[in-house]
Amino acid sequence: MAKYTPHTSEDVRDMLQRVGVESVKDLFNDVDKSIRRTEPLNIPEGVSQFEAYNKFKSMAKKNVVIDTILRGAGSYDHFIPPTLPALVNRSEFLTAYTPYQPEISQGILQSIFEYQSYMCMLTGMDISNASVYDGATACAEAMHMCCDKKRKMIIAGAVNPQYTAVIETYATAGDFEIVCVPEGSNGKIDLCALENAIDDTVAGVYAQSPNYFGLIEDMKAVGALTSERKVKFVYIFNPVAAALLPTAAADGADIAVGEGQPLGISMGFGGPYLGIMTCKTAMQRRMPGRIVGETVDNRGNKAYVLTLQAREQHIRREKALSSICSNEAHCALTATVYLSLMGKEFINVAKQSVSKAHYFMERLTAIDGFTLKYKGEFFHEFVTECKLNVAKLNKRLLKEGCLGGLELDERTLLWCVTEKPSIEQLDTVIKVIKEVASCN
Amino acid sequence: MQLIFEKSVVNGRRALTLPEMNIAEYKLPEYREEIDLPEVAEIDVVRHYTGLSKLAHGVDDGFYPLGSCTMKYNPKLNEAVAAFEGFTAIHPTQPKETVRGWTDALNMLSDYLCEITGMDAITLQPAAGAHGEFTGMQLIKAYHKYNKDFGRKQILVPDSAHGTNPASANMCGFEIVTVPSNSEGGVDIEALKTLVCEKTAGLMLTNPNTVGLFDRNITEICEIVHKAGGLMYYDGANLNAVMGICRPGDMGFDVVHLNLHKTFSAPHGGGGPGCGPVGCKKALCKFLPLGVYGSKLPKDTASKSIGKVKSFGGNFLVALRSAVYIVTLGADGLLDASELAVLNANYLLALLKDKYPVAYDRICMHEFVLTAENIKHETGVSALDISKALLDFGIHPPTMYFPLIVHEALMFEPTETESKETLEYAADAMLKIYDKLYTNPQELHDAPISTAIGRVDEVQAARHPVLKYNK
Predict the structure, then answer these.
(1) Contact flag B37-A343 (C-beta cutoff 8 Å)
(2) Residue B180 carries which DSSP code?
(3) B53 contacts A90? CB cut-off 8 A
(4) Domain coordinates of chain A in residue numbers?
(5) Which of A319, A388, B59, B272 has the lowest tally of Cβ within 10 angstroms?
(6) Do B454 and A103 touch (CB under 8 A)?
């Protein structure tokens, strides 16, 4: 078996002697006999690294790596440059703890400062924290920021149902009330219904753009409404779309949250991802999680340090607005290095995604029986209805190496096209769908 | 070092370019002002972040005895497996038949974690320890609600607990009742008896506790809380001391969270991501978050679910590293890890305790707490100064000023992956520092001197916050 302990039997003998006990077992005399195990755990004996590697290699082979992924819904298949893992997986980054010792952690602290700067660039907001668990929990944490005496939040329109589910879990836990104002028949926020739903008990409004169906919402109108009614506006954004669309700050957001996975983080069957949280200066003392700030050291050097810690659980304990301690630092580093590597070419990632999505939508809806469900402007996701059974269609696409749109119901699919698939790949998928359609 | 933004050359450099699209660009109705991303060459980016990495300190750089954080070696094998394309390039909504490898790995891990903790089912969804606490507290809340026991609004938390414990319980709407510690750093049994009542929802506890001692009264504590109708919550921060020796489930705990990034060797990544699975006894399985893995789940698992605590299933690539770790070590290796973690802590303690006062002078578990209270009184040198002086020896300081019940606390957790020589080097460093306490305390106030920067002005950072790059 592989072990990572360096002790020789002589080491153990000498150490026990110094400690003053006869055997290792004697170190555990505080553990009462009634609960002390006499049998080994029911887990197989250890194996060599060689065997473990092969075991997991064959497990990995049982997963199907799909060439053309035309599905998003919260997890996005963007190109990950090989330079990215080569840098972020340097073991100084990977094996470090939270940078509580600034003298030996400037590299990590500066990378977080750069991360915070990037997130503020994307959203136009004043302040970013150092990350939370994922986009869904970022939404949920925003509720704690908005609510004080008023404990009701509104979810307006088509917000990703995973986000809604997590917001609702946090709401049940903390005794908040959630009101969903469903989208109108055009798939977008029903502004009249939203206006009617905002009463004196409401603390804030969630709105997502591009929304779950990919549609670009009129966030300016939402911002105007929330500002007029003096409730907080939580803007849920996609960081790739944020390269092109008017910023959350320009649209009047108080808090902007999003899923950072599209920024160079692998889909990884669901995690780890990256919860982005940004806000206006007025709300900085209510921001959860770690924040890095600039300062100087005792030698007059510029330096970075964790700051504004009086908000956090290790100081405030039960009075803290959030219990977050470990965050997604390494994912935040990944997003930072990704944006540095892409630089201004990141704008092209967004442009190619939106252009390829429209290219694919036009060809798809030209096929007899396929229609675009919502006619509004969309970014890189859109919904189609068709006469085909979509489960069967997706099975066929899978055989051709394509993950088709997410099945919203048996006739409806939510598609996503990023910059990654080539035009040839998209044309091939269209060809297959045409074949299936013509056989029906 | 300059920020990456300060290295940008306007209208100039690119690290990467996308292939030509060869179709018309779709024009959106409204655009933002062009985003001011840096223009740098690939070599600039590579040198920038390589440079930053050299200004970081990981377990791979040196000894990291950070108490309660279990900074053990993070095997490279685990990293290699977590980088297999067959695990990384998988969309979370792919059909079942295309993710059988993932299902196998997660079922296996869940089974092993249940066996290690003595629980009946476990969710891998929580993303970190505090997220696990939040999830576990909701299980307890749901349990009492389901039993129409609506008055149970209080969670008991020892005064020695990590700040996440009361904060997580508070997020779940509980009122926090603080339980004092006894002279051994454990739960004060008599005080506990007076605090439990019909309002008690549960007690949150680590065992070994935050002073590194195994609470000898643990079964009695569980009995007292259970008799009052409350549930026992186990914070798994210190599980590294007892794998294969005893199980929270057998001690009497009902809910457990683990920190896979501590005990099960997943790297800390500079602060995350972690993975904080939550296991529970049969009576609570019905409340688990949706999407539980495992091959022998109770039938009603997640039937009255508290919902979802995170998008998709969890931080699975972190969980996968721990699966590799457990498979590699096996039952024998896990026991060996815990035994040697405890031996290492006791050996380092033995080398130090003649000079440095120990908060609780007993055989410890995987960590121990020194107190510099008298030293500070006599010499003016604080726990902080001692910690900063360790930096000049290439050693990451122990956890300082925690737990709160020990003044000028220095909490050392060497972990099992350190050699006898490393422990002796660290002890030698501590003894050299000790000598300076009485001969040259100023040198300790001035430490560190060998690091990239000196001590920082935290007050300025908080009073005049500069939190992002301004052009």
Answers:
(1) yes
(2) P
(3) yes
(4) 9-54, 68-78+345-439, 96-342
(5) A319
(6) yes
Q: Which residue of B has its CA nearest to A359?
A: B23
pLDDT, average across residues A107-126: 98
Task: Tell me the per-residue pLDDT of B60-86, one tens digit each, with 9 for 90 and over.
Answer: 999 999 999 999 999 999 999 999 999
Distance (Å) of CA B199 to CA B92, B137, B150, B193: 41, 15, 9, 13
Minimum Cα–Cα distance from A20: chain B residue: B350
> What radius of gyration, in Å, describes the C-alpha atoms of chain A?
26
All structural domains of chain B, each given as residue ranges with its CATH number in brackets, are 1-55 (no CATH), 78-325 (3.40.640.10)
The CATH classification number of A68-78+345-439 equals: 3.90.1150.10
CATH pick for A96-342 out of 3.40.640.10, 3.40.50.2300, 3.90.1640.30, 1.10.10.10: 3.40.640.10
B36 touches chain A (CB under 8 A): yes
Rounded to an integer, what distance in angstroms lies between the CA atom of residue B277 and that of residue B49? 32
* Inter-chain CB proximity B268 and A95 less than 8 Å: yes
Q: Is the pLDDT of residue A168 over 90?
A: yes
Length of chain B: 471
Structure tokens, B289: 């978050």
Q: How far apart are CA B456 and CA A103, in angstroms?
A: 8
- Is some CB atom of chain B closer than 8 A to the CB atom of A188? no
Task: Identify the helix (H) or strand (E) that includes residue A407.
Answer: strand A406-409
Instruction: Identify the pLDDT of residue A26.
Output: 97
Nearest CA in chain A to B249: A35
How far is Cα B268 from Cα A21, in angstroms, rounded to an integer? Answer: 34
Residues whose CB falls within 8 Å of the CB of residue B148, separated by 6 or more in sequence, listed in order: none
